[in-house]
Structure to design on (412 residues):
C-alpha cells in the first residue's frame, strides 16, 4: 500500500462490523475473572502492548491503541506510544533517558517548552547543547539520548538526521518531527530511534485536540515508554485519540494544500521590500535535505519585517482575517511572535544564543484561498509601513546584510 492509502485504511483486520473505529470512553472495565485481571495488570505494568483485560483506562484504551497502530504504520516504526500532549511525550522520553544515564545532548533551536524542560532542571537532567557538527564530541559514556528538531521551531533550520545518528553512534537519536508530519518526513528511515509529534498540530489538524506520540524503532523502547506512561499518567484522552485518528486520514491532502499555499506566500514575501528575511526549509542551510530526508518544505515559515518587534506586533494587530495565536498545523492560518509567546519561557539570552530574533514572526499556513491570505498579509505590512524609506539593505546584527539564509542554520 502507498502512503495515502495507508492513511485511510484500517491498520489491522478487525472483528467489529463498525466501519469507523469505535470510541471507548470507559475509565474502568469489568473484571469478573479476577485471575485474568491480575495477570493483565502485571502485563501492563511490564509495558506490554496487549493483555486480556484493560482493567483501567490509565493502563490501556482501545481507541488510543488504534491511533498508535496507525502512527506506527505511517512512521514505519516498530511501535508507538501516545500521550496527553507533545510535552508529555517528550517528558516520558527524557525520563526514560534519565533512568539510562541522565545525560542528554540536544541540538538547538527547539520548541520553547522543550528548551525550558531541558534547561530548567525540573527533571534533574544534565544537558549539553551542541550544534549538529559538535554532537560526536558532546557524547559521553552516560549520554542516553540525542535530541533534535527538524525542521526546528521557529527558525525552520534543517538537520541531517542520518549524519546526526552517525555522530551519535550507539546513542539513540530522537527527532521532533512535528513540523514535517509523516507525510513529509519519517525519521526512522534515516536512522533515528524515535520520531516525536505534537499531534496537537498537523496530525489533529483542526485545533480541537491535544496529543503527543512517540514512534519507536524497537518494541523494547516502546515498552519502557508505556511503563513510564502508566506510572506517571500522561495518557491521551480517548476522545482526543478519536479526533487524531480522524485527522490522520486527511493529513496528506491537508499537508499538500497548506504547503502549496505556504510556498506561494514565501515566494511573494521574499520579493516584498519591507521583508528583511524569510525562513523556510530549502532556502537556507541543508537545503539539499528538501527532496530527500524531507519530501517537501512544509506549511510553516518565519518572516522578519523591517522595523523590529514593535512593527511585527503592529502588523499582527492590523490583520483582519489571519488569526494571531500560538499553535500551528490547523486548517486556518495562525501567526505569532515566538520571542513574545512560544519561546518566551526559555529567556532572552537562550533565544539570542540559539538565533531566535525578537522580531521573528512564525506563520503556520492553512487551507484558505491563498489570495485572501496574501491580501491580508500585504495590507497588514502596508498599513504598518516605515515612515522613512529604507536606504538600501540595513545591516542586521544576526544576519549581516544577507538575505535568504536562515538564522541558526548549522550553528549551535
Ligand atoms: C507544540 C510543539 C510541542 C509541544 O506540544 P504540545 O502538544 O503543545 O505539548 C513540541 N514540539 C514542537 C515542535 C511543537 O511545535
Amino acid at each position: 500500500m502507498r502512503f495515502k492509502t495507508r492513511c485511510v485504511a484500517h491498520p489491522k483486520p478487525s472483528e467489529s462490523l463498525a466501519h469507523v473505529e469505535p470510541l471507548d470512553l470507559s475509565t474502568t472495565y469489568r473484571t469478573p475473572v479476577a485471575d485474568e485481571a491480575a495477570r493483565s495488570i502485571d502485563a501492563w505494568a511490564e509495558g506490554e502492548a496487549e493483555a486480556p483485560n484493560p482493567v483501567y483506562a490509565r493502563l490501556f484504551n482501545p481507541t488510543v491503541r488504534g491511533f498508535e497502530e496507525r502512527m506506527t504504520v505511517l512512521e514505519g516504526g516498530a511501535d508507538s506510544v501516545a500521550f496527553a500532549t507533545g510535552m508529555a511525550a517528550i517528558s516520558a522520553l527524557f525520563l526514560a533517558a534519565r533512568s539510562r544515564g541522565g545525560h542528554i545532548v540536544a541540538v538547538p533551536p527547539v520548541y520553547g517548552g522543550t528548551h525550558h524542560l531541558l534547561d530548567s532542571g525540573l527533571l534533574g537532567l544534565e544537558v549539553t547543547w551542541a550544534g549538529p557538527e559538535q554532537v560526536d564530541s558532546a557524547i559521553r559514556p552516560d549520554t542516553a539520548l540525542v535530541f533534535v528538531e527538524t525542521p526546528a521551531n521557529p527558525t525552520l533550520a534543517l538537520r541531517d538526521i542520518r549524519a546526526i545518528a552517525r555522530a551519535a553512534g550507539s546513542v539513540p537519536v530522537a527527532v521532533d518531527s512535528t513540523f514535517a508530519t509523516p507525510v513529509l518526513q519519517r525519521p526512522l528511515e534515516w536512522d533515528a530511534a524515535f520520531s516525536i509529534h505534537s499531534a496537537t498540530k498537523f496530525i489533529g489538524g483542526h485545533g480541537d485536540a491535544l496529543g503527543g506520540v512517540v514512534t519507536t524503532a524497537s518494541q523494547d523502547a516502546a515498552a519502557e515508554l508505556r511503563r513510564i506512561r502508566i506510572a506517571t499518567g500522561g495518557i491521551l484522552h480517548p476522545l482526543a485519540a478519536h479526533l487524531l485518528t480522524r485527522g490522520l486520514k486527511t493529513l496528506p491532502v491537508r499537508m499538500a494544500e497548506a504547503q502549496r499555499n505556504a510556498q506561494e506566500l514565501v515566494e511573494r514575501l521574499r520579493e516584498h521590500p519591507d521583508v528583511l528575511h524569510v525562513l523556510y526549509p530549502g532556502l537556507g542551510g541543508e537545503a539539499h535535505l528538501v527532496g530527500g530526508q524531507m519530501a517537501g518544505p512544509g506549511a510553516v515559515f518565519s518572516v522578519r519585517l523591517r522595523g523590529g518587534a514593535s512593527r511585527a506586533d503592529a502588523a499582527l494587530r492590523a490583520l483582519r482575517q489571519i488569526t494571531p495565536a500560538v499553535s500551528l498545523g490547523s486548517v486556518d492560518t495562525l501567526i505569532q511572535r515566538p520571542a513574545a509567546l512560544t519561546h518566551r519561557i526559555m529567556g532572552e539570552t537562550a533565544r539570542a544564543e540559539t538565533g531566535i530574533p525578537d522580531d521573528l514572526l512564525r506563520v503556520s499556513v492553512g487551507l484558505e484561498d491563498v489570495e485572501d491570505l496574501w491580501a491580508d498579509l500585504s495590507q497588514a505590512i502596508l498599513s504598518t509601513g516605515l515612515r522613512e524609506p529604507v536606504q538600501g539593505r540595513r545591516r542586521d546584527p544576526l544576519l549581516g546584510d544577507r538575505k535568504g539564509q536562515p538564522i541558526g542554520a548549522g550553528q549551535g
